[in-house]
Every structure is written in C-alpha cells, then in structure tokens.
C-alpha cells in the first residue's frame, strides 16, 4: 500500500503493464492506494519460498495445522470492521455486504481447519495384505482471484488448500488487492509460517501468467472470465497441472404461473442487483410463464426501483457502483442509450462508476443481452409457454452455473431442478452459495467444485499403498 511501499515516481501509468497499480475508490474515483505490481522474477522467488514453507507445513501434526488455521480465523474475526471498510473503499461494496464477506473468510477458515484432522483415506479389502489410501498435499497452489468478491473467492481456494497441507500464492485482481494483502499480514500475526500464504498483487498477463507457467506451481485455482479461464487451462495442459475454474454465468430465474408471485417479484431484484450484478451467479435472465408475465412485471417494477442505490458506507445502501470505468463501458455496450428498458432505476450522478438497475425485454432468445454475461445491474426478461419451454430456454446458453425455480408444485420443482444443466440451483430462493455445500459450474461455467465437505480433496493427490501381510521366509 502507498504508505508502506515507497515507489519510484518515474513509472507513469503509460505502460500497458504498469509497475504499480493505482487503487481507486469506485464510488468517488479517488486514488486510495498504490500497490506495486509483482514481476515474473518476484513470482519465481515467491514460489521458491512457498516450496520451502510447504514442506514444514505438511510435516506438522494435523491438529497443529488445524490450530493455526483457527487462529488465522480468529485474527480475521478480530478485524472484520477493518477488512469490511477496506472492501467498501476498494470495491464499492455496501458495508452490510462487506461485513458478511469478511465474516465469510473467517467461516471458510474455521470450516477448512476442521478438515485438516479429517482427511481420512480408505482401507480397502484386498487379498494378501493391507491396502490403504492417503490424501497427500499437491505442493504449491496458485489462487488467481477476481475483483467481484475479492475476499470470499480468495478464501474459497486458500482455506481448503492450506488445510490440506499446501502452500498458497494468491494473486488478487488488479483493482482489489488491499483486503488480500491485509489477510496475508493477519496470517503471519496468527502464526502461520513465513512463505506459506503469500499475496502477490499484479497484472493478470504478467504476475498471473508467470504463476500459471511456473513449474513449481502444482495447481491453479482461477475465478474470472471464461476467455482467461480457457487460456489458463490450455497453459496448465503443458505441465499436466491441476486446475479448478469458476467462470461466467447467465443464470435463469424461472417463474412459473403457480408460484407465489409476490414473493418471487420481491426476491428477484436482489438476485441480479446484489453486488451491482457483478456476480457469477446473478440471475440475469428472468424467464416468466406467459400467463402471468404482465402481472409479474407490475410487481417487479416497484421492487427494482426501490432497491436502495448510493453511498456504500451507508448501512441502508443495497447497491453501490460498478468496479471501474471499463466495467461500466462493458455494461453500457449491452444497453444502448435509447434501449427501450422495461424498468430503469436511479443512479447517483457525478463521480463514481454508477449504473442504474435496468430490466430489458428481450427482442428474442438470440439477443446478445440475453445470452452473454453482462456483469452489471441488468437483467433480461423472456416469456415462456410451459415447463418444457422453460427448460429449453434455461439451457439455451454455453453457461451453467446457477439458477432459481419459483413454483408451488414440488414435483415440478424437482423435475426442473434435474433438467436444468447448472451446478447450483435453488427453489423458491436465490441462495445457492454456502461454504458447507459444493459450488461450481456445468458447461463453460467452470471445471471442478469448490466449498462443501469435499473441498480439501481438490487440493490432494490420492496415494494407494499396499502392504503385504505374507509371512516372511525366515519366520516360516
Ligand atoms: P479476468 O478474467 O481478466 O480477471 C480475473 C483474474 O484473472 C484477475 O486476477 C486477473 O488479473 C487475472 N488474469 C487476467 N488475465 C490473466 C492471464 N492471462 N493469466 C493469468 N491471470 C490472468 O476478468 P476481467 O477482465 O476483470 O472481467 C471481465 C469479465 O469477466 C467480467 O465482465 C465478467 O463477465 C467476467 N468475470 C467473471 C467473474 C466470476 O466471478 N466468474 C469474476 C470476474 C470477471
Ligand atoms: Mg481481463
């Protein structure tokens, strides 16, 4: 951060990949910090340190690893307000959301800590001996995190990887490194060994790419765009590196005529406006049964326009700005100024990357706004005729991350949940991400699963050992 890292002033930000990143408050456009950009040589040095630290960490008793991770969780718990305030300033998240996010990091560490002592293998019956399996750590894991949920997503990979005995190098997004850097300090204060959890801020194509290509990195956990995810997967193939990908989404919110329409309409805004729509699980395609379409839209309009937009530091705020000017341009490209929006909310004028809540009526299922991830507070509404039509529309995308189904018919809820090709579905709810349940995408939304009871397994190799019980010749 600017106060701690003196930086030479002969590096104007004219380079494509600057030697430092200016961190802006997206609500005010003020520069709040300057963070050095890690070079490929510094990445290599960090991998060497991590490799050394990992050996000692894996050799610790499982109970000691668990205890240190619980201390890390306690350190995070003691700094919830500080971490939340940083998230408000660098990411523009409403303070209520930011507090939840910091608490989520604590919970992820606590949950993973319990796994360190429960990483049991199997004893498999075979002839002539004892067969057992061990879940061994991979070594050094790289976590490349995005800016939309900087703290939780960093911890999704980091907490279980550490618990399973790995070292972690986290590369936060260019725009949001501050909470990650603070978490690394808290880890050291909590007693985690030096080098075990390192945070390297920097440019994706420089520091991120150097991590992905480094032979000392055994696994890459990436959350971000599908385009970069594909590139990372291809690079990992060269070294047969393990990879987990959490990519984009275009998730459906399917509202059947038999649903509690009032409840469905009241809940819909949060499902695509929370985090200003910068959420891989955003329910940005609202599919409504034609017979209740008009009624649903009447109920949806006041729910959208009353979603409180404004100063992220105000506890009453539900929606802040977008992360950056670039992201606002991206969002704008889907909604031309003269687009006939069905519903449009308000947004503050002046400084800050504000964008109003917007609901578009799709011109057709092939409409760009109806098929591409917008990652802003914009949803598209489409009518459907019957259950088969709803499922067909829901699946008419290369993505398959999340989705919601609103109906009072239990059988339909189960049928549609099974028919929609997505990793995380919710019925009469939009909640589908919990640290105790598995999370991940179908199709081009990703590869592998994070969170849940099996999270640690993704950071281990299974080793099978057969021990002969044959009587030795001397004893015969
Ligand atoms: P991005 O995929 O470029 O960035 C995500 C992370 O990857 C950042 O830490 C970035 O520094 C890193 N990165 C970028 N290029 C890299 C490379 N060549 N090698 C290694 N690491 C690299 O995403 P971006 O450009 O910030 O956002 C563009 C769009 O991607 C968004 O509008 C949204 O649609 C999608 N996205 C989806 C996310 C999700 O949660 N699934 C998160 C962020 C973005
Ligand atoms: Mg990018």
From TrEMBL:
The active site is at residue 246. The keyword Oxidoreductase applies. GO terms for molecular function: oxidoreductase activity, acting on the aldehyde or oxo group of donors, NAD or NADP as acceptor. Gene3D superfamilies: Aldehyde Dehydrogenase, Chain A, domain 1, Aldehyde Dehydrogenase, Chain A, domain 2. The keyword Oxidoreductase applies. PROSITE patterns: ALDEHYDE_DEHYDR_CYS, ALDEHYDE_DEHYDR_GLU. This is Aldehyde dehydrogenase. It comes from Streptomyces antioxidans. The lineage of its organism: Bacteria, Bacillati, Actinomycetota, Actinomycetes, Kitasatosporales.
